[in-house]
Predict the structure.
Amino acid sequence: MAEVINYRKPKVIYKKRPFLSIVIAYYNGENTIRALLDSILEQEGMEEEIEVILADDCSPHQEEFLQVLADYEDKISLKAIKTDYNYAPGNTRERGTMVAEGKWLAFADQDDLYIPNTLGEVKSIIEEAREQYYAVAAFYEIDRQSGKVLRELKEKLNWNHAKFYNLDNLWKAQNIHFKKDLLTHEDIYISSCINCACRNLGIRPLFIDKYIYKWMANPNTISRQKYDGHMFLEMFFKDYLESTGEVYLAKSKTGDLERRFGIGNCIQVILFCYFYLDSFHFHQNNKYMYENDEYARDYIVRVKEFFNLDNKQIYDVAAANTAQLYNNTLAGALIGTGPYIPTMTFKDWLDYMHKDIGTTTNIQETLKKKNMEILNYGDE
């Protein structure tokens, strides 16, 4: 019977607070985790600057997990912690953050790699810039079989890879947490929360022009699989809304996000819904999941009601500045869905989702009283 570890302290104790805590969500990762840990050990000059937190999501192969710990716990400051039940990477990463003690926080997937001798450069750049909150480096998407670079990703804010969060000033001070039991899009959820926090703090991330991470593309991961012919985004569209639009709407309702920024981001999410759902129609018309229309419709109605918007005002925001928000959102949506031919215009789609019968006049009068202009939101 394998030992059950709820939390194990590191055997290697540093004399000072480490610069970086790397949280790794672990689940039966014995075939890949050693390569990742070796890539962390290959960071020159960071011998006492990195602690690793292996957060185990109730792996059934506990003997293998214990062997990984035995192989590396004398080489690096290595903590082990376990979730209460197996469910999702977000729950696992959240458990890992609870024992993080580094000045900065980062996340790695168990089958990815850090590029040798890059984290020391990141540390130097952050310290030279006197950055106190948030830094974003670049990373590669790599084909696991051929080793070829599929994409070079720079200044991307919707992945946890190659991102560094100040543990005290940003993560803890802004009360950042992974959403409990969110099955997918957990990294997008954190990105939405961080985006709101940066807005409240009046800061932008420090972009580091350095490739530091290899994201290994695996066709068998949850985000790469097909589900009875449906693409990942279509199957988990509700999770997408939970991780984006619901964050901006909820924080607007609590007063934790300024109105103008909340409106702009909620409308951008509505645009993403339009592009995504239209592409699902194009690619899988005979198997289209109409329940996703209901998720989007419910969200649109609640956004309109809370911000006192009508369809024309939503359209005007999307079309402002020569359709800047519309075009930028389309470019982002195509990364996830691939090219397609639209079946209806954005105007027609908004009417299909929710007509303004009996509400437009009242909404416009309310807006006039508040003397509010909804223009030039752009892509903030």
About this structure: Residues 232-370 form one domain. The chain is about 45% helix and 15% strand.
